[in-house]
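ok trying this again, last paste got cut off
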Amino acid sequence: MLESLWKSWHPARNPASTTIICSEEQAFILEGEMTLRLGDKTYPMKAGDHVVFPAGQKVGHSFYNHSDAPCRFIMIGEKNPNEVVFYPETGRVGVRLMGEGYDKSATVEYWQGADTERKKRS
């Protein structure tokens, strides 16, 4: 299932980067200009520019409106019910299937806390 979002960002808008795990996203700049931040690199974007963020990309992406005017663009992507979104700056992890968010610093080993002995007896 595809989802499209029409967005208009005013000057100095600078949201956190996201890393989308399961879905591809695309952005098409309709009017104005802004800066794409992809990992630790930046790229200027203007009306007519298009960028694709493939599923499983290992770096976060975000946009920053560095201009004095609003920037209008459309985001197109899959609305994957199993999506996992990672926010590198904050360490937050969003799990769409669960409808929950987690703090990456609270990670555990895969079997940590599981009763593996009970599983062996079954």
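PB: full thing came through this time. The first strand starts at residue 2 and ends at 9.
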